[in-house]
Amino acid sequence: MRISHFVFLLFVLTIASCENAPPPAALQKPLDLYVSGLREGRLELLRQAFLPNGRFCWKAAADSVICEPFSTVLPTWTTPDPLCEGHVLSWEATEEMARVTFELEYDGLRFKDHLLLYKPGTDWVIVSKSTEVMAR
């Protein structure tokens, strides 16, 4: 019984450390490409961060959620915003899959993004993004 309590405590401490520790550099890379692409208005940087057939979802109205492929929405995100900033609020990862909660300041608005990433080869890629506009 004591071993199971220790394993559970170790699991909880591991997850909690992810809430406060920065993500590994390899996981941070697509997030940096995302912010740099928005800051510079460079579609090629955004395409490196996002899987083309991945999905972007947002709440359009009280009873409506819209989802579109990144290949459709990324070209609409190319207005440069030199003040664009982003930082990780929390993250959790296995060897091949990760979840990141990310705060983004872009185009005068503050967003909370919930990102899912996969590592299909050697690099992480964002496969899903759900976002909400936050009060400033």
Describe the SSE topology.
Elements: H1 2-20, H2 25-40, H3 43-49, E1 50-61, E2 64-69, H4 70-73, E3 85-93, E4 97-106, E5 109-118, E6 125-134
Parallel strand pairs: 1-6
Antiparallel strand pairs: 1-2, 3-4, 4-5, 5-6
Helix pairs in contact: 2-3
Short description:
The chain is an alpha+beta fold and 136 residues long. Helix content is 34%, strand content 42%.
Helix content range: 25-40%
- How many β-strand stretches? 6
Low-confidence stretches: 4-17
Mean pLDDT: 88
Q: Strands of the largest sheet, in order across it?
A: 2-1-6-5-4-3
Order of helices and strands: HHHEEHEEEE
- N- and C-termini, Cα separation: 48 Å
Specify Rg, calculated over alpha carbons.
16 Å
Kindly name the structural category: alpha+beta
Strand content: 35-45%
Counting DSSP H or I runs of 4 or more residues, the number of helices is 4
Biggest sheet, open or closed, and with what strands and sense? 6 strands, mixed
Rough shape? globular
